[in-house]
From TrEMBL:
The lineage of its organism: Bacteria, Pseudomonadati, Pseudomonadota, Betaproteobacteria, Burkholderiales. PROSITE patterns: HTH_TETR_2. Pfam families: TetR_C_24, TetR_N. Residues 33-52 bind DNA. Keywords: DNA-binding, Transcription, Transcription regulation. This is TetR/AcrR family transcriptional regulator. It comes from the Bacteria. Residues 10-70 form the HTH tetR-type domain. InterPro entries: Homeodomain-like_sf, HTH-type_TetR-like_transc_reg, HTH_TetR, KstR2_TetR_C, Tet_transcr_reg_TetR-rel_C_sf.
Length: 196
């Protein structure tokens, strides 16, 4: 299941993932214990372990789910949008939408991956790299088409960073906040084009 699909929030695993993401985002992965999760969910330790294997599994599930969803959106954008400027705008807009819809989960994806063991972290970082590669290829295509400045890794990281870290301030409950963010970021992308 992807993050864009409507999760079955009545399913115990979905409720557990939502609660874990909220707590990990608020207090950090290492600041939350199994007892904290049990209290937040109103269940016993045994009931919780009926649905999960470990706290680290929860962290990996959150990170894998949302990065896989972003990766699938990026692959679709690359397949469906041949114009690199419009594709970059679409990538940015979809990333903002996912962050706005799942702010706690994306905060966890961006901040807590380091807490995973080496093999788990490697799997999550591979998804991050595949996602970022679509952005990179889009910038390179735009360079070859003469619409983007020569590729720069720093520019790629700056573009991704401004989108990723919007989880810190993006407030979907504030009217117009998500639309404003999309417009501002779209303007920054447009300013990075040779044609302006």
């Amino acid at each position: 299941m992807t993050a864009s699909a409507a999760p079955n929030t009545s399913a115990p695993k979905e409720k557990i993932l939502k609660a874990a993401a909220r707590l990990f985002a608020e207090r950090g992965y290492h600041g939350i214990g199994i007892e904290d999760l049990c209290r937040a969910l109103g269940v016993s330790r045994g009931a919780l372990y009926h649905h999960i294997r470990s706290k680290e599994d929860l962290l990996e599930d959150i990170c894998m789910r949302y990065m896989a969803d972003l990766g699938e959106k990026a692959r679709l954008a690359a397949a469906e949008e041949p114009d690199p400027v419009r594709r970059l705008e679409r990538l940015g807009s979809e990333l903002i939408d996912v962050i706005a819809a799942s702010r706690a989960e994306l905060a966890v994806c961006f901040r807590e991956t380091h807490a995973l063991g080496a093999e788990r972290r490697k799997r999550v970082l591979a998804l991050h790299a595949a996602y970022e590669n679509v952005w990179k290829e889009t910038l390179l295509e735009g360079q070859r088409a003469g619409v983007f400045l020569p590729f720069s890794r720093a520019r790629l990281k700056a573009l991704l960073g401004m989108h990723y870290y919007s989880y810190l301030w993006l407030d979907p409950s504030r009217p117009g906040c998500v639309d404003d963010a999309r417009e501002v970021f779209r303007g920054i992308v447009k300013a990075a084009t040779i044609t302006g």
